[in-house]
Amino acid sequence: MNSVGLFILVLLYLVLLFFIASVAEKSRKPFWVNNPYIYSLSIAVYCSAWTYYGSIGVAATRGLEYLTIYIGPIIIIPAWILINAKIIRISRVNKISSIADFISLRYGNSRSLGALITLICAAAIVPYIGLQIKAISDTFHLVSHTANSNNIFTDSATYVVALITVFSSYYGTKYVDASEKRVGVIAAVAAESILKLIFFLVLGIYVTYGVFNGWDDLYAQASTFSDFAHKNSIGGLTGALNWCLMSLLSMSAIFLLPRQFHTTIVENRREKHLRTALWLVPLYLLLINIFVFPVAWGGNILFKGASVNAEMYSILIPQKFGQHIITVIVFLGGLSASVSMIIISSIALSIMMSNNLIIPYGILNKISESNVKDNTKLIVTVRKIGIALLIVCAYLFYKFYINENSLFSVGLMSFVIIAQLAPSFFSAIFWKRGSYWGAVSGLVAGVFMCYKMLILPEMSGARVSQSFFTIDYFDPMTNAFFWSLFVNTVIFALVSIFGKGNYTERNYAEMYVDIDKYLKYQDSAFVWKGTAETEDIRRILIRFLGEEKTKQALHIFNQKYNITDEEDTADARLIKFSENLLAGRIGTASAKILIESVTKEDKISLPEVLGILEESKQNILLNKQLTEQSQKLKQLSAQLQHANASLLEKDKQKDEFLDAVAHELRTPITAIRAAGELLQDDEDMPEGIRSQFLYNIISESDRLNELINDILYLDKLEHTEQVLEIAQYNIKNTIKKVIQPIEHLVEKEEIKLDVRLNLTREFFYYDEKRMIQVINNLLANAIKFTKDKHGEILLSVCNPQENLELKIYNSGKQIPDDELEMIFEKFYQSRNQNLKKPLGSGLGLSISKKIIEAHHGYIYAKNILDGVQFTLSVPQNYDKYEKNNYCR
Question: Other CB atoms closer than 10 Å to residue 191's CB: what's the count?
């Protein structure tokens, strides 16, 4: 493909990125804003051109050593759930927008430390960005078959870089608040992560199964090389030591690279998204490395004896076989890997440079005197220029310095320099004694060691800097990494231990290390003593937020702490709140400087700080205990209210029950008394009438006795534990015991009784005595309400799903649908004026329901055809009965 056509393809690709970013920014739908997969894929920006090309070059020339760049992250990523979760909480409550802010805030919110970290990051990352530009340029010329021109204006790669600069400047500075989430950029980077993985897998599949006949064939041919076994082994003790150090180096890089801190920490919207990243990011790293070996050794086989750059095998192999589509696909994959790294790195660095260098040391006074519109415009302009300058510097660095260097060597050098942040970074969240001077001293010493052992030899052309610090077992890169980090850590620790930090350092140390304790009371845990006017702070906030946003912010603050709008004096909480509001726009250090300009702070001794912090801890603990007690009291209050309501309901039910009992008892007693009085008053009563009255007395006495027994039995069911005598019974025999005593009554009433047994087995578990009582109650009820003469009762028994189920249907008057549940209440029949007053206690259905529920079954009634059907079901879980063979 010619250079013009390839450039147009690159242009279309970047237009696609613009489109994705634009859609994400405008829609702001949950898919873009709150998607753990997009978040996790954005972290895959770790896989840059170094991964796409450099790993293949290392695999081809040095063997398995390339794996160390991915082993470290894969090992440490599971610890994100503890480490990064803590960093995310700290960053969120302090409005941290860069790794420089994170470290400098911990060590006293010092602008000098922030500036030092920014310079170190720039020194490490600008060459790294240059490495990406080199990859784009080299592959562009390789695919288009054009020479790499020394004239930047005739070099097509120059214009590709210009397009990337425009994209980064536009979307990277869309928000003046640097801690704001960049939905568009992250969506575009996630899309690029998908594309570069797919394109790399296409290349790997083509080489493995298109050029060669699978893994076996490729391995067999590669194993004929004399150095194959050596390259594809750890290399003994020496190799193992280098592998360990290289893995530690990459392990630190996944935390400390500005682009990784930005995507993992700053762009995190939900802490729970880390759980997805815990498995998706390692999986991604594994997938993108599956075909590195086949491509690397496939290139060695195909270009044996040829003088070619092994890092370009991914382009050269498909080109060799005239596969132009695959060649272009690989180029676009490498472009994706490079562009995403350049975009995120330039954005992260521009934020650091503006917030930690340009604003605090250059234009802070000018900003503070301007209005909100001018301030916003100036900050955004500074960041746009910063992004452009960084990419331009990286481009010049590529053109005039690293043009002949390998991607792998430049990448490792950047890793070693950025690793110098490790002691101050990790001690920030785990060690309270770490101090500002310890951090500065360690960083300076570590960077000096890197300069002496890496940069100086590279500039002078010497491969190794011979000195006391040279260890024969280590490669030059691992040797420099070991000694620089060792010196850095030792000096940092010694200065921190024997030095004396100020109160601000100790204050933030407590809050960083114990963030979970201070999370809900972060503003209260900030130590500050002095005097400040609320109006002065408000005026500063207006310059950056505007009148309306400042008013809203202060209103929220006042409501949170129950402060009146008329409060004139600012306290520590308002100071911290105001610094956080400004931090996203101008950085934590500049925010502190501005707030300090309108406050008069009293010096606090370290013992005072510790006393305040201890008091704060006690307050936090007390607040937690009070909150827990309050919640317990609320629960207890709710339980008491429920219990009170239940007692009232039961009291009401008791009154209704007593009224019903009195009514039911009064009826037979009145009948007995009336019959007795008539017998007493009329001695000459005929014998036939006398016999009838005596019969009435006996029957009413029986009814009274039945009623009293039912009431006592129902009371036992409701208030005591009634043991069920569960055993295996033949249901046919049980039905016979029920039917035989009532056959004469059915015949007398001229009712048709039909019994149907539709069973696959006959034996079931139940309490036979109680089951007979239930069936008797239901049949008695059916007989009472069946139409006089020629009515019908149907009793059917079956065992669906092996459970015992009985249905008793009777023709006659139906029950109103809204009262079907009420019929199981005590004395329902006696209160229902629509039904004929039946004989009996009116407790039969209520008792039946209690017995069936004691069997863990259910009973209900429904209207069907021209009558009513009762259905009861008893489960056949014998183990349940053995453990719970009682009812309450």
Answer: 21
DSSP string, 445-505: HHHHHHIIIIIHHHHHT-SS--STT--TTS-HHHHHHHHHHHHHHHHHHHHHHHS---HHH
> What's the rounded Cα separation, in Å, for the pair 632 and 788?
62
Distance CA 783, CA 781 (A): 6
On average, the pLDDT of the chain sits at 82
Domains, the chain, with CATH or none: 3-372+380-400 (1.20.1730.10), 520-604 (no CATH), 609-718 (1.10.287.130), 721-887 (3.30.565.10)
Nearest-angstrom CA–CA distance, 493 and 499: 10
Nearest to 617 by CA among 734, 518, 549: 518
User: Looking at residue 569, what DSSP letter applies?
Assistant: B
Band the pLDDT of 835: cuts 50, 70, 90: very low
Higher pLDDT, 495 or 837: 495
User: What are the tokens at 436?
Assistant: 């500002």
Query: How does pLDDT run across 45-56, given as a tens digit for each residue?
Result: 999 888 889 899
42: left (phi > 0), else alpha (psi -120 to 50), else beta?
A: alpha
Strands (E), 783-877: 792-798, 804-811, 858-864, 867-874
Token readout for 143 is 């695919």
Closest CA to 754 of 739, 744, 741: 739
Angle between helices 407-418 and 236-256 (to 10 degrees): 70
Torsion of CA 722, 703, 658, 849, to 10 degrees: 40
User: CA-to-CA distance for 311 and 326, rounded, in angstroms?
Assistant: 17
Report how far residue 407's alpha carbon sits from residue 128's, in angstroms, rounded to the nearest whole number: 9
Please check whether residue 277 is in contact with residue 77, taking contact to mean a CB–CB distance below 8 angstroms: yes
Other beta carbons less than 10 A from residue 339's beta carbon = 30
Angle CA 75–78–82, to nearest 5: 130
Would you say residue 342 has pLDDT above 50? yes
Furthest-apart CA atoms within the chain: distance in Å: 146
- Lookup: tokens for 686: 């005929």
Q: Assign 792 to helix, strand or coil.
A: strand
Residue 883: its pLDDT value, please?
Answer: 44
Residue owning tokens 């009712």: 751
Classified as helix, coil or strand, 213 is coil
Indicate the SS3 state at residue 16.
helix
Residue 885: count of CB within 10 angstroms of its CB: 17
> In a 10 Å sphere around its CB, with 0-12 CB exposed, 13-18 middle and 19+ buried, how is residue 165 labelled?
buried
Which residue in 582, 90, 98 sits closest to 353, CA to CA? 98
pLDDT digits (tens, 9 = 90+) for 639-682: 788 777 767 766 666 666 566 566 556 566 766 766 676 666 66
Three-state DSSP state, 831: helix
Answer yes or no: are the C-beta atoms of 621 and 566 closer than 8 Å.
no
243 is written with which tokens?
């592998």
Tell me the residue length of the chain.
888
Phi-psi region at 424: left, alpha or beta (left = phi > 0; alpha = psi -120 to 50): alpha
